[in-house]
Specification:
Number of domains: 1
Number of helices: 3
Number of strands: 4
Helix content: 25-40%
Length: 92
């Protein structure tokens, strides 16, 4: 899996690389990426589009690493699903 890292989260990048994932820096890689992992408000400062991610027709999984262990991140990556919103039980 090719994962683009956005922001200053070197521990996450190193550990995922050690687990066999291809790690690239967001904005410096022009090939296909499967997921973008960003730290904190890193996403707010970017312009993520299909053109600059080469995600293909299925899109790109985007995950905020803040408050998550590498094990949790890897689980999200394997499942291909991430639901960061806390809707307070209003929609079940």
């Amino acid at each position: 899996m090719t994962i683009s890292i956005m922001g200053d989260i070197p521990n996450v990048a190193t550990e995922l690389w050690q687990r066999g994932h291809k790690i690239v820096k967001y904005g410096q890689y022009s090939g296909h990426i499967d997921a973008i992992i960003y730290g904190g408000s890193g996403l707010a400062r970017t312009n993520v589009t299909a053109e600059n991610t080469a995600g293909g027709r299925d899109g790109v999984l985007m995950v905020n690493a803040e408050g998550k262990t590498v094990e949790e991140l890897e689980s999200i990556l394997k499942m291909g699903v991430y639901t960061p919103l806390d809707l307070g039980g209003k929609f079940t």
